[in-house]
Write a structure and sequence with these properties.
Elements: H1 15-31, E1 42-47, H2 53-64, E2 68-72, H3 85-95, E3 98-102, H4 106-115, E4 120-122, H5 130-144, E5 151-155, H6 160-172, E6 175-179, H7 188-196, E7 200-204, H8 207-211, E8 216-219, H9 230-237, H10 244-247, E9 255-258, H11 270-273, H12 280-300
Helix pairs in contact: 1-5, 1-12, 2-12, 3-4, 5-6, 5-12, 6-7
The protein binds phosphoric acid mono(formamide)ester and norvaline (NVA).
């Protein structure tokens, strides 16, 4: 049996393929896509957590390539009554051509991928959010040119989105600096991965030093889906808010990014979120174009990216 092209993380797909995906996404954004490339194919999306962008962009991407979509949530499916993820994977594999899965734990995602006989896409876990960072790198390059050797500065909780940025820093060759309080720093697991893969990643407790001269400043919610102790997190993360004063330390043409949803006044001030350096709407819009090349690669391989 041929190996399945799962899109589980940015460290599990080679850099050359990721680059081709970005090229295809940009091309489809500018010139339109192949409206029949995925005709006859069906995507099942399984959501165990809420979503606006991932859900709508994948559905529209699939439809615009000629495919169809079905959506499952625990409420309304047997997942909510304890049917296992592996059994769900085996069943879905009989009906559809690929699965996009948003779940709380990385182990659920791996269980789905192991049991499925069709490709599985990671639509966010507690560990990572690779589809988001494909759109983010696409966006940076669209507005500011090649991300290679640029400096991206992350302020706040070193969460699932930050982990995918770390993977991307090795795969696309940029420096990734993180400023966060001690209790919300990257795990040993991701830092070991960064070291093994030659990623230029640094961590400090000083947001000003981290952002100084950066080409891109990025943050995310202080309280991710499933996080406990919201008040405690807000107190610890308060000094890492991205405000205009902090943005002023970045490079002159620096951009501000955020995967959304954003909580103005927490991780970033409204002045920054809605300010002239913010590219968040382009970033959100690019989810659609990024999803298309992911779907094409999973289902058609290199031919889908030709
Ligand atoms: N950024 C992102 O994944 O948004 P949703 O949770 O709305 O899908
Ligand atoms: N870190 C956030 C990202 C939401 C898209 C979360 O996991 O809730």
């Amino acid at each position: 049996m041929t190996e399945l092209r799962h899109f589980l993380d940015l460290d599990s797909v080679d850099a050359e393929t990721l680059r081709s995906m970005l090229d295809v996404s940009a091309r489809m954004k500018n010139a339109g896509g192949n409206e029949t490339a995925l005709a006859g194919k069906t995507l099942a999306m399984v959501f165990e957590k809420p979503s606006t962008r991932t859900r709508v962009s994948f559905e529209v991407a699939m439809q615009s390539l000629g495919g169809k979509v079905v959506i499952l949530e625990p409420e309304g499916s047997q997942l909510g009554r304890g049917e296992t993820v592996a059994d769900t994977a085996r069943i879905l594999s009989q009906y559809v051509d690929l699965i996009m899965y948003r779940t709380s734990s990385e182990s659920n995602l791996l269980e789905m991928a192991d049991a499925a006989s069709i490709p599985v896409i990671n639509g966010l876990t507690d560990w990572s959010h690779p589809c988001q960072i494909m759109a983010d790198v696409m966006t940076y390059e669209e507005v500011a040119g090649s991300i290679s050797d640029r400096v991206v500065a992350w302020c706040g909780d070193a969460n699932n989105v930050a982990n995918s940025w770390i993977h991307a820093s090795a795969q696309f060759g940029f420096e990734f600096r993180i400023a966060s309080p001690e209790e919300f720093r990257p795990t040993t697991r991701i830092m070991d991965w960064a070291e093994t893969h030659g990623a230029r990643v640094s961590v400090s407790g000083d947001p000003v030093a981290t952002v100084t001269g950066a080409d891109c400043v990025v943050t995310d919610t202080w309280v991710s889906m499933g996080d406990a102790e919201a008040a405690k997190r807000r107190t610890a993360l308060e000094p890492f808010r991205v405000n205009a004063e902090l943005m002023a330390r970045a490079a002159d043409k620096a951009v501000f990014m955020h995967c959304l949803p954003v909580y103005r006044g927490d991780e970033a001030t409204a002045e920054v979120v809605d300010g002239p350096q913010s590219v968040i709407w382009t970033e959100a819009g690019n989810r659609l174009h990024a999803q298309k090349s992911i779907l094409l690669w999973c289902l058609l391989g290199g031919a889908g990216l030709a």
